[in-house]
Amino acid sequence: MQFQTHPKVPFTRVEAPAFVDRKGKTVDLFSVESFVNSAVLLDLSGRSLGEIDDEDLEGAEEAAGLSIREGEVVVLHAYKEDSKKRRKPFPGLSENATNYLLFRRIAGVAADCQSIDEGNSMRSHRLLLRNGVFIAEDLCNLSLVAQSRFRLLTLPLRAKGGVSAARVLALLDSHW
């Protein structure tokens, strides 16, 4: 099974290295354990339009009283409320922000926007995916996640390609 993304038909999805490199690892080659992670939620919903920079990430960490840990998935809450009418351009990651996340040795990046790149650059996609960091985009209901740290369960289909539709669940302590 293969998926093609279409900018007018957004769906929650996982992207693997094959999304930017034909010879890259496809979604079906990742172990199930790769998609069960500790996660940290960074609230960036109060910022203005434009790229998310490393200073924005550090500010969100400071505001939440935490720091990104090695091996975590960083969940970016970029929109003030969950809405089908998402603003454009998408608040993509700057090169500095992407390098900051790579320096922190994260496992993945998940976001409630249609792309972690502003416009059509694919710069952050290339940097992250080529370094083994998976990407999940177009998440919803992040405003309902009441914890800064939680377990993130990302459930992609076993697609032989660089992208797969996925269910992404936040497993909160209060629900156990």
Give a short overview:
The protein is an alpha/beta fold.
How would you describe the overall organization of this protein?
This protein has a single domain, classed as Putative cyclase (Glucose Oxidase, domain 1). The protein contains three helices and seven strands, in the order E-E-H-E-H-E-H-E-E-E. The protein has helices spanning 54-64, 95-103, 123-129; strands spanning 13-15, 36-43, 73-77, 108-111, 134-137, 149-156, 163-171. The chain has a seven-stranded mixed β-barrel with strand order 1-5-4-3-2-6-7. Helix 1 packs across helix 2 and helix 2 packs parallel to helix 3. The chain is globular and about 40 Å long. The N and C termini lie far apart (34 Å).
- From the 3D structure, determine the CATH topology: Glucose Oxidase, domain 1
> Which structural class is indicated by helix and strand composition?
alpha/beta
How many beta-strand runs? 7
Question: Quick one: overall form?
Answer: globular
Uncertain regions spanning at least 5 consecutive residues = 5-9
Instruction: Name the CATH class.
Output: Alpha Beta
What spatial order of strands do you see in the largest sheet?
1-5-4-3-2-6-7
> What is the percentage of strand-forming residues?
15-25%
The arrangement of helices and strands along the chain is: EEHEHEHEEE
**What's the CATH H-level superfamily name?**
Putative cyclase
Output the radius of gyration.
15 Å
Most strands sheet: 7 strands, mixed, barrel
